[in-house]
Amino acid sequence: MRWALLANVAACAYAPHSYSNLGTPFPGERFTTACLDISIARAEDPRAQGAVVQYTFGNRCAHAVVVDLATLRVSGDGALLRAFDPRHELRPLAIDAYWQGSELIEYSGTAAAVCVEVSGIQADARGPERWVCASCSSRSGRVCWSSRMARS
Asked: Whole-prediction pTM value?
């Protein structure tokens, strides 16, 4: 019985630098912070009225780290976008060692291209300013392509 439990726990752990969750690849543009493997992609949600961004992340460190999606700067078509958060649920939260997670966040506006400034996504390892942009050419796919873009 003990071996079965260990096998179950190991199957749920994140494999560092794998950018996958139980064999399913993280969609979108991939990048790293001190402890996180992260991907950002534009996603489609028929219920959403604004732009939707999918954040997928895995903690490759042997300790918990704080993921901060609440304070990210997001712009679309040259304007700052605000997260749709009527219940005020967005806040920095810890992710356990060798674990993964994914969040879909809707932003105000229906921008063709959405850019996210990602330097503060790992709360304790803020780096230099870095923007990742994603755009959708149609509403037929669930996840659209994304690319890095240097912005000043």
From this structure: 0.81
Domains observed in the chain: 14-148 (2.60.40)
Q: Identify the weakest region by mean pLDDT among 11-15, 30-34, 75-79, 82-86.
A: 11-15
Give pLDDT tens digits for 104-135.
Answer: 999 988 788 889 999 989 988 888 888 988 76
- 143-144 and 93-95 as β-strands: parallel, antiparallel, unpaired? unpaired
